[in-house]
Design brief:
By secondary structure, the chain is mainly α. It has helices at about 15-25, 35-50, 55-80, 95-115, 150-160; strands at about 30-35, 80-85, 120. The two termini are about 25 Å apart.
Length: about 160
Amino acid sequence: LKCWHLREESAFYPKMQFLNSIAQLPSGAQVIMAFGEIDCREGILVSVQKDRYKDIDEGILVTVNIYMRVLLKLIEERGLEIFVHPVPPVLNETRAVVKAYSKILKRRVEETAQKVPGKLHYLDFFDSLLTADGQFRKDLELDGTHMSPKYLEEMHKSLATIV
């Protein structure tokens, strides 16, 4: 699901499936949200090429702001505690966009979290997925497209600093 598809005016079926799935959660549930990868892989770049955004940063900010509005609404209406997962930097082709996206995502989560203390958290382990030279760690690769479950060790460390 692209963050773009979560915008208010969208009626695209993945958004409806997302909302139906969220409705199954008990009020006050703790949830990890992991969105933005498809935006980084295709949505933002295509939109910049079509001059919908002046540059990649504008496209990132638009999609991240949509994401933050949806998360804030879920927190306010459902009492959820949300942990925002960084976009996985697995693909060489999109890593530069993912890095830029992650910076903006982290900043916007931290800003938005001030409105709902204790309810919105950024899982700050993005840098631990990369080598010193900015490449995806080989030991966390699964199939060239996805992360190995071994990455959960890094996510767990981040969660442990919050809960």
